Amino acid sequence: MYKIRLFADGRWVEIFTAFDPRDCGFNGPVEGGYFLDDEMASDWGEWPAKTKRTVPVRGVHPDEPKDYRLYRSDAEREAAGYLPTPYLTIFRNPEEYNVWLQGVESGDPDPS
């Protein structure tokens, strides 16, 4: 995966893409070789009944700065030994990325 960092909506945002964002016209720094284990996201729909669904918690391995994972809670992340990370967004295809980027450029990072 690729990672870029942008300052948007008053905060630093780490963006992971499954494609090279330079192919979509991004001309800022791009880092490759990242691993994002989002296996937890695949069973997100299987949340226990009548419990509050939380926002996924991101973590980075303390000894492997390109190894990121998603967790259900800070406690789960801490138990795995991963460190907290800044806000991040994941794009699986260029179309999602382009819509988001247009929103950032217009001053509205959530154009939906």
Summarize the structure.
By secondary structure, this protein is an alpha/beta fold.
Characterization of the model:
By secondary structure, the chain is α/β, with parallel strands linked by helices. The chain has one domain. It is built from three helices and seven strands, in the order βββαββαββα. It has a four-stranded mixed sheet with strand order 3-5-4-6. A three-stranded mixed sheet has the order 1-2-7, covered by helices on one side. The longest helix has 12 residues. The radius of gyration is 15 Å and the shape is globular. The two termini are 25 Å apart. 15% of the residues are buried. The mean pLDDT is 78.
Layout of secondary structure:
Elements: E1 2-8, E2 11-17, E3 35-37, H1 39-42, E4 57-60, E5 67-71, H2 74-79, E6 83-84, E7 88-91, H3 94-105
Parallel strand pairs: 2-7, 3-5
Antiparallel strand pairs: 1-2, 4-5, 4-6
Can you give keywords for this protein?
alpha/beta; 3 helices; 4-stranded mixed sheet
Task: Compute the number of helices.
Answer: 3
H-E string: EEEHEEHEEH
Instruction: Tell me the domain tally.
Output: 1
Task: Work out the helicity level.
Answer: 10-25%
Structural class: alpha/beta
Distance between the termini: 25 Å
Largest sheet: 4 strands, mixed
**Unreliable sequence segments:** none
Counting DSSP E segments of at least 2 residues, the number of strands comes to 7
Spatial ordering of strands, largest sheet: 3-5-4-6
Determine the strand fraction and express it as a percent band. 25-35%
Name the average pLDDT.
78
Rg estimate, integer Å:
15 Å
What's the shape? globular
